Amino acid sequence: MRSSDPAFPVRNTSLCLDINGHKTDIIISSYEDHILVIATQIGSMGTILQARKEGGVTSDPTYSISVVFGKRDEPMLIACARQLIEHISNSGSSKTLVLSLGLRDHSLGILKSIVSAVTEKLAEVI
To answer: Does residue 55 sit in helix, strand or coil?
Structure first.
């Protein structure tokens, strides 16, 4: 686990986990208007998603999640992005999430572990 250098203009943190026997690297960076989360088991970016909270007059928030690049037929990836943007929104941030998932498989267990690890570390960068 490594936290960002205070002199670096982008707040970031990283960690390496073993998830279901696969080395998983996670990097979280907070820019002025975006949060970038990269989780990889394959050493590359994989599918890239964008998630944001939609402004509205109703009390129930709505979220927009779209696949920017990669697999578009994976509903579990969209569910993962939704859980993370809800957590970001509930923590008081209005930043957009850019999520990159380069995973060996998209099983529920792996995605739950990634969501859990990221939500624990987000407070360090938001």
So the answer is: coil
DSSP 24: E
Cβ neighbours for 28, distance < 8 A, ≥ 6 positions apart: 12, 13, 14, 35, 36, 37, 118, 121, 122, 124, 125
Strands 96-102 and 47-54: antiparallel
Structure tokens at 70: 């990669």
Instruction: Indicate the DSSP class of residue 83.
Output: H
pLDDT tens-place string over residues 24-46: 999 999 999 999 999 999 999 99
Matching residue, tokens 């026997």: 21
pTM confidence score: 0.89
